[in-house]
Specification:
It is a single chain. The chain is an alpha/beta fold. It has two domains: 211 residues, Spore Coat Polysaccharide Biosynthesis Protein SpsA, Chain A (Alpha-Beta Complex), CATH 3.90.550; 85 residues. It is 42% helix and 18% strand. α8 runs antiparallel to α9 and α9 packs parallel to α11.
């Protein structure tokens, strides 16, 4: 059986995909297959991969209709036959020729099912570089409680991970911004324990117009809906203190977007509102917010 399936869901972009494929060619670890599921509206991706000779290692599938993210991720993974899954977005690549070997060696040596690493981050618009490092303190917190990911995804993008294939755990089609956080929590709940290396094994592109971050990070409808939706999925396994903490997080999120009514939350698709303590705090906070707005209007009218 193939040891690692490198799954690359693609859509129209070939500028960085070429670097992705070249970095795979350069890997010292050779027991892999590549699965590409193509959502593109043109033949650019197919034309690009025809220039590479991966022989029987490459499986290419052109989707009959566009699936979008994350359905195309799941389609790609469903075709894979490897023991481990290595998702690669079409604008990410291996930093070093031994990146895949180090991921595989570490996860097998430590006998875990999930591993992630540091990454080099390239800002597409400015071409500046930085290193993404979650930090050992956050790693310690994650080992104690997986729910810390609700407040921030410090594992990073799926490209920074390698995990043992589990066909029962797929990416939730209802999510786009928090789809990786939701997946990580569900996967690690089922498969406790993980490995982490401070080696910078992946290079990821940020700040490009086509990235999910650029599309979602300031979108009120996406952020409100997905954070409340994820809370709803997690709450059954939360104790009362965690529920209160998450409720406060959601409260601050509503303040960020100046949401002051339950009705407005519902128009954004929120079907599950945290229980009474959230409603009480939300309404008290909303009242203070509205009084502040009235006070500011009054001051302006007097000037």
């Amino acid at each position: 059986m193939t040891k690692i399936s490198i799954c690359i869901p693609v859509y129209n972009q070939t500028k960085f995909l070429e670097k992705t494929l070249k970095s795979i060619q350069e890997q010292t670890f050779s027991e892999y297959q590549i699965v590409i599921t193509d959502d593109s509206t043109n033949s650019d991706v197919l034309n690009l991969i025809s220039r590479f000779d991966f022989k029987e290692k490459l499986i290419y599938v052109r989707n009959s209709e566009r699936l979008g993210s994350p359905k195309n991720w799941n389609k790609c993974i469903s075709i894979a036959t490897g023991t481990y899954i290595k998702i690669m977005h079409h604008d990410d690549w291996f930093t070093n020729s031994d990146s895949l070997q180090l991921l595989y060696s570490t996860i097998t040596a430590e006998n875990t099912n999930f591993i992630f690493s540091d990454a080099k981050v390239i800002m597409a618009n400015s071409y500046s570089e930085t290193t993404y490092k979650p930090g050992l303190e956050k790693i310690k917190l994650l080992r104690k409680n997986l729910n810390v990911l609700f407040y921030g995804n410090f594992i990073g993008a799926p490209s920074m991970t390698l995990y043992r294939r589990d066909s029962e755990i797929i990416f939730d089609h209802n999510l786009k911004w928090l789809v990786d956080v939701d997946f990580y929590i569900r996967y690690l709940r089922k498969h406790p324990g993980f490995s982490y290396t401070e080696r910078t094994l992946l290079t990821i592109v940020s700040d490009a117009d086509h990235t999910v971050t650029a599309i979602c990070e300031d979108d009120k409808e996406i952020l409100i809906y997905e954070n409340f939706y994820l809370y709803s999925k997690l709450k059954k396994k939360l104790n009362i203190f965690e529920k209160i903490k998450m409720a406060y997080f959601l409260l601050h999120l509503t303040r960020r977007f100046n949401i002051t009514s339950i009705g407005e939350l519902k128009t954004l698709g929120v079907a599950d509102i945290p229980s009474i303590y959230f409603l009480l705090i939300f309404r008290l906070s909303s009242a203070r917010f509205n009084l502040g707005k009235l006070r500011n209007r009054y001051i302006k009218s007097r000037n």
